[in-house]
Input
Amino acid sequence: MTARRADHRGLSPHRVGTVAMVVLASGLALFGVKESVRAWQLRRDMQTVEHELTTLRARQEQLTRTVDRLRTDPLYIEKLAREEMGMVREGETVLKFPSQAAPSPR
Output
């Protein structure tokens, strides 16, 4: 009976193996959680970049259309000159009216 009791108090190969497996499993679980969080962050970053890319492509198409119009459409150039630069044709009369102020509340 004393020999059997000594086996339970000491470190048997079975106990060492069990402890090693628990430590290994814990380490792998911790690593897995850490990598899962990292993968989630990378997916989120990728979605953000894809959204920015879509926005930039739409803006590029808009700018390309504007450049094409500036190169080929004289009426568009005239419109921009009138609206943005306040230009008029020779012989045109420009009438400016004072803006009306909003009535003050009594």
Observations:
- The chain is about 75% helix and 0% strand.
- The radius of gyration is 38 Å.
